[in-house]
Design brief:
Elements: E1 4-11, H1 16-29, E2 33-40, E3 48-56, E4 70-73, H2 76-82, E5 91-95, E6 133-137, E7 140-145, H3 147-154, H4 160-172, H5 177-194, H6 196-212
Parallel strand pairs: 1-4, 4-5, 5-7
Antiparallel strand pairs: 1-3, 2-3, 6-7
Helix pairs in contact: 1-4, 1-5, 3-4, 4-6, 5-6
């Protein structure tokens, strides 16, 4: 398996850290080396939240990195904050319900349980395309998924980050959906037991996101 350096970015309250932690937990439980480092300000809601994730079958050298293999952006402001981590081969995955199609300069080199996500994190946008938009910006692969719209219209607005996580699973191939579900079960078992719909919505969101990305993805 190739190594992955991943940046997940969004607004506080969008489930950025839950997404990143679940990915790292699933990778670790599957036998990979995994490192997850949160990065956010003192304001948990209202500020940009970043997470650094590294997945590898071999040793991981440094806890942080300057260039990412995959950038996941959940808001316009967080996309701008993440530009410093772009390199020519970086893959960008973003929520097209919340972010207009980005223009990235070639000069730039650069589980959440759903009762706790801030409702104000969601833009008032309607409509979505059934399949993700996919384009090339310079030499970068850009993948757009209307995760927030899909979550609102098919499941629950507050599991949109799990749709994004499902897409990350398909893009990287580092872990399986079943391994991610097992990681969620370990972290949220008490909440799942209290409200089985929470489990159903999270699992369905993961599958929806994974199916939205064409595989195998040639990266």
């Amino acid at each position: 398996m190739r190594s992955w350096k991943i940046i997940v970015s969004g607004e506080g309250g969008q489930g950025v850290q839950a997404l990143a932690e679940t990915l790292g937990r699933a990778a670790f439980q599957s036998g990979l080396n995994a490192l997850y480092i949160p990065n956010f300000g003192i304001e948990q809601r209202g500020g940009v939240s970043l997470a650094f994730v590294q997945l590898s079958s071999g040793p991981i050298g440094a806890p942080k990195f300057r260039r990412a293999d995959l950038v996941v952006a959940l808001s316009p402001r967080s996309l701008r904050r993440s530009e410093q981590y772009f390199a020519p081969g970086t893959v960008l995955l973003y929520d097209s319900s919340l972010i207009e199609a980005p223009e990235i300069s070639d000069q730039v080199v650069g589980q959440q349980s759903y009762e706790t996500i801030a409702p104000e994190s969601f833009a008032e946008r309607t409509g979505y395309r059934e399949r993700q938009d996919e384009a090339e910006i310079g030499s970068r692969r850009v993948i757009a998924i209307p995760a927030s719209d899909l979550a609102r219209q098919r499941l629950h607005p507050r599991v949109f980050n799990m749709i994004i996580l499902g897409a990350v699973v398909s893009i990287t191939g580092a872990v399986t959906l079943e391994q991610v579900k097992a990681a969620l079960e370990e972290k949220l078992s008490h909440r799942f037991a209290h409200d089985p719909r929470l489990r159903e919505h999270n699992h369905a969101a993961l599958e929806l996101g994974a199916a939205a990305v064409q595989v195998p993805l040639q990266i």
